[in-house]
Design a protein that fits this description.
Length: 263
């Protein structure tokens, strides 16, 4: 096992970055701090083509650190709603979002827990998820891999389109429906199984396959030898730590565990 001082949060940031590795000059959107840091790491390390915003209405030359800042980031251009939606509807965006539930089809939920008519918890509502899911590629991040998040059956309220023909208009797959990866605190998954079934890509160091299966509400494809999720290298760690000088990432996972789990 490699000798590293990397934390699990830093490993997850590095894996979030990987979702944008081969993208062209697209808008890279990471929702919540770990995906956002992943987008910034991707742009600064291996994909400078990505377009990054300040999370408001400006394109930035370089990603801005999270948390309090000294000075203002260098602005590349204006990103009003019209320009943002031109990219979105034109398929020139790849979002890494953090829903509360996902099912075996890749359908996600950010709206309610329980029945929509009498929810146990009311969340954000569907927001832009329906349109996003049929307009550009999407990936997903879950900081806590459990059967409450990766659910059996369908999500409580379908907010985004997945690979479920029963919910496609006229049974036809939306033209730009493209689900890429799922990054969790246990593993990395994709949709590369038969009929886009969710497939295990790698296990994080020290995580057994049985733990992933026991905490997933549906069957996952996991044939053959399973790779171990690579640790972030020294250059990636230096960029992550520069982008998060206040170590906000240390507060995002309970106990701030190390990247390599020990028994």
């Amino acid at each position: 096992m490699a000798d590293t001082d990397a934390t699990l949060a830093e490993l997850l940031i590095a894996q979030c970055a990987e979702v944008w590795r081969d993208d062209p000059e697209w808008l890279a959107t990471g929702i919540t701090p770990i995906p956002r840091l992943g987008a910034s790491l991707a742009k600064l390390s291996f994909n400078p083509r990505l377009m990054i915003t300040d999370a408001e209405n400006m394109f930035l030359e370089e990603p801005a650190p999270i948390g309090p800042r000294e000075g203002s980031p260098t602005v590349e251009g204006w990103a009003p709603y019209a320009r943002t939606f031109d990219n979105l509807w034109g398929g020139r965006r790849h979002a890494l979002v953090a829903p509360v539930q996902i099912d075996r089809f890749g359908q996600t939920n950010i709206s309610v827990i329980g029945s929509h008519d009498a929810p146990k918890a009311a969340l954000l509502g569907a927001r832009g998820f329906p349109g996003n899911s049929i307009s550009h590629p999407n990936s997903f991040f879950f900081p806590q891999h459990s059967k409450r998040a990766l659910v059996a059956g369908e999500v409580d309220f379908v907010c985004s389109v997945g690979y479920n023909p029963a919910r496609w208009p006229d049974g036809r797959k939306p033209h730009r429906l493209e689900l890429r990866r799922i990054v969790t605190n246990l593993c990395v998954l994709d949709f590369g199984g038969p009929q886009h079934a969710i497939r295990l890509v790698s296990l994080h160091p020290g995580v057994p396959l049985d733990e992933v299966r026991d905490n997933t509400g549906f069957d996952i494809e996991a044939d053959g030898e399973i790779a171990e999720t690579p640790l972030p290298g020294a250059e990636a760690l230096a960029i992550i730590r520069r982008l998060d000088p206040y170590d906000i990432r240390a507060t995002l996972l309970k106990g701030n565990p190390p990247a390599v789990r020990t028994a």
